C-alpha cells in the first residue's frame, strides 16, 4: 500500500465531516502516523479490509504487552517493512493534524465567519497525580518512573488539545476519570476494577454527562 498526503483545505466542510483518524507509532522511523481509515475504506483498494484490520491491531498494540504489526511499504519502487505499535508511544490522545484547520485559522484572522465546531474528548485515564508506594529497587523505581511519564504525557496531551481548540475557535468538552473514582487497580487488567470503572462511566452518562469545559487545574 502507499500512503497519500493530507488533502488541502479549500473547503473544510466535507473533509471535517468524513474523518475517522487513528494514530500509531512507527518505531523504526520514530514518527507518529495518523491514518484516515475512513478514506482508506472508501478507496476501493483490494487490500482495504486487511489494511484497516492491521491498523486497528497496531493501534491496540501496547509495546511489550501485545504483538506489534508489520506493514509492507513500497517507496520509489523499493519494498520496506514498517514496525507499528500503539500511538500512545507518541501521544495518548490527539484531535486532528494542525494542517486540517489551516484555512479556518486564515478565515478567523481575516474576520470571516467559520463553521461552528465542537470537540468531545474522552480521556480514559485520570488527570490528577495518584500517590503510590515505590519499591526501593531498580525495577520498582523504573516502573514508577515510566508510569509517571505516561501519566504526564496524557495530561499534556489534554492540555495541548485544549489549546488547539482555543486557537481554532472550537468548543471543548472533556470526559475523564475524576477524583471521585477511588477504587485502586490491584493488577493490570483486573476484572473487578474494569467493571467498576465501566459502571462509573455508565452512571455518569445515564445522569446526563457533565462535560468539563476545560482541563482540571
Helix-strand string: HEEHHEEHEHEH
How many structural units, i.e. domains?
2
Helix content: 25-40%
Strand content: 15-25%
Structural class of the secondary structure composition?
alpha+beta
The whole-number mean of residue pLDDT values reads 86
Low-confidence stretches: 1-16
Specify the biggest β-sheet.
4 strands, antiparallel
The gross shape turns out to be: globular
Distance between the termini: 44 Å
Structural account:
The chain is an alpha+beta fold and 217 residues long. It has helices at residues 12-17, 37-42, 48-59, 102-109, 138-168, 191-206; strands spanning 21-26, 31-36, 69-75, 78-86, 118-126, 171-177. The protein folds into two domains: 12-89, no CATH class; 110-206, no CATH class. A four-stranded antiparallel β-sheet has the order 2-1-4-3. Strands 5-6 form a two-stranded parallel sheet. Strand 5, helix 5 (138-168) and strand 6 form a beta-alpha-beta unit. The longest helix is centred in the last third of the chain and has 31 residues, at 138-168. The model is unreliable at 1-16 (pLDDT under 50).
